[in-house]
Amino acid sequence: MVFEVKNFDNLLGTKGFSDQLLKNHFTLYQGYVTNSNKLNQALMMMVKEGKTATPEFAELKRRFGWEFNGMRLHEFYFSNMKNGGSELKKDCKLIKKIHEEFGSFENWEKDFRGTGVMRGIGWVILYYDMMSKKLFNVWVNEHDVGHLSGAVPLLVMDVFEHAFMLDYGIKRVDYIEAFFKAIHWEESSNIFDFVTNF
Q1: Greatest CA span in the chain, whole angstroms?
Q2: What is the pLDDT of residues 74-121, one digit of tens each?
Q3: Residues 46 and 68 in one domain
Q4: Which pTM value belongs to this model?
Q5: Do 138 and 105 belong to one domain?
Q6: Can you give the CATH number for the domain in which 98 is found?
Q7: How confident is the model at residue 6 (pLDDT cuts 50, 70, 90)?
Q8: Is 174 domain-assigned?
Q9: Sequence-separated (6 or more) residues with CB below 8 Å from residue 129
Q10: What is the number of structural domains in the chain?
Q11: Pick from 42, 46, 45, 39: which is nearest to 64 by CA?
Q12: Range of the domain at 186
């Protein structure tokens, strides 16, 4: 299986995100796709050669998760954005669930933004846990540390410096404001509808 680079050029021109920032970010994402493919191929070759008990296999296996998650999280992030953004419909299942879990959309937003301004690099993810049927705003360090096992990402925000420093310097709060104006809520709502129909 070969992972293919997805095209997110539809985001160019998004208010609050310079085209140069987005193009740099797309290039970074493309590197994760390339490395996921290289590692997957190398691991399959080591399996065929009977080298699964080697330290090299173990290290490549660990590295694959980091590269794969870097690829996939960027795909979620870019898919969660839309030039001009979109509203979360007042009668959709997702906003009803947010109200049920957080008391109000405003409370959820404070929690999500508050998670986003925490010191460090990583990701902020609104997860839906299908077993407990609960929503969580979660900090994920790097790409592979902090995920909730079995939970489905509904909204992903990149808070690595490369996502905002070119346009905002160290003003992460301003970047988060721009991100909120570009959220493609229909995407998050559709994912929620899909996973709750099981």
Answers
A1: 56
A2: 999 999 999 999 999 999 999 999 999 999 999 999 999 999 999 999
A3: yes
A4: 0.95
A5: yes
A6: 3.55.40.20
A7: very high
A8: yes
A9: 135, 136, 148, 150, 151, 152
A10: 2
A11: 39
A12: 93-196
